[in-house]
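Course exercise 7: structure representation. Students receive a sequence record and must write out the corresponding structure in token form. The form below is the worked example handed out in class, using Formyl-CoA transferase (407 residues). Read each field label carefully; the graders check that inputs and outputs are placed in the correct fields and that the protein name is recorded exactly as given.

STUDENT ID: A-19
EXERCISE PROTEIN: Formyl-CoA transferase
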Amino acid sequence: MKTALGHIRVLDLTRVLAGPWCAQNLADLGADVIKIERPGAGDDTRSWGPPYLRDEQGHDTTEAAYYLAANRGKRSVTLDIASPDGQEIVRQLARQSDVVLENYKVGQLKKYGLDYASLKQEKPDLIYCSVTGFGQTGPYAQRAGYDFIIQGMGGFMSITGERDDLPGGGPQKAGVAISDLMTGMYATIAVMAALAHRDRTGEGQYIDMALLDVQVAMMANMGTNYLASGKPPVRWGNAHPNIVPYQTFATADGHIIVAVGNDGQYRKFVDAGGRPDLAQDERFATNPMRVRHRDILVPLLAEMVKTRTKQEWIDALEAAGVPCGPINRLDEVFENPQVQARGLRVDLPHPTAGKVGLVGSPMKMSATPPRYDLPPPLLGQHTAEVLADLLRKSDEEIAELRARGVI
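STUDENT ANSWER:
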């Protein structure tokens, strides 16, 4: 199968989520990704469980589900980069790679001779991407960056969560590590752009990715709302500051989202609920009036919605042309016919579990679709293979390196 990046090799020195997410994207697109891990321990997320992947007998393996999420398509090589021999192997692998990814603390790899300036001497057209919490410059550069903290510092939690004047109001983080994931996505884009530039000019370059930079950038219209008005946006929970009703409602057996965009849709909504009087009332007849009287209207709508089940409401509102949707648990997500039709679950053979279920790439490409050749690797699974094939190490040399704890 043709792949977009089948000609690219990536040396992945990252761990946890932001860097591995970038590397997995590149692997999905065909790149040969070599993941360097600590001997005996590996990526921190291998032990971030439960849950763990289960073997064919139903017993837990050593592979945490967290680790499985970000390491598909890679080859694992265990290597002690604190040792001179380990550093030399990294340099040798870098010479045969197009891209190096790392997420060590600022300056940490320089003492090993594995920073961009050092590896550029080995391979002038190398693309080298560093992922840190705060970037390589600025007063916070030496600080460790954690997604949760970055969500707070970057403004996301100031607009996420229930309104302060309602029960449960206050700042709320996202349910997934969004600054990590978005940094991985931005890093993927930057690497692809650098590869395109290299292919045109022969010039490599350094990429400095920071979680805080990404979090601020991804505030999108909320950031420009502030810059335009001088007023920081506030939390609205699942409601909308300018449209009513545009929020979640509890049904008899779950929750739904109702996204009324105009007065006609509002009339259809309340008609479907058997409350046409809520459209005839002048306080609720137009959106500006509904926004003004939301504290009166929303409790009435909430009482109306609770009289039916989630599916009854979805069926009724879809038939009426009112934008709506369920709030699904993940079991419902993977049972959804649209999710199944789009191939968002993939099952790959696994050396200890028999097979492993993973979330497929959302990138749908007609000529070079994502590939799923390799499951997330066992720790050090490909060490001997990579050293023999790429560096021409003999069995005796590999055994000697292993005996000394280098690999």
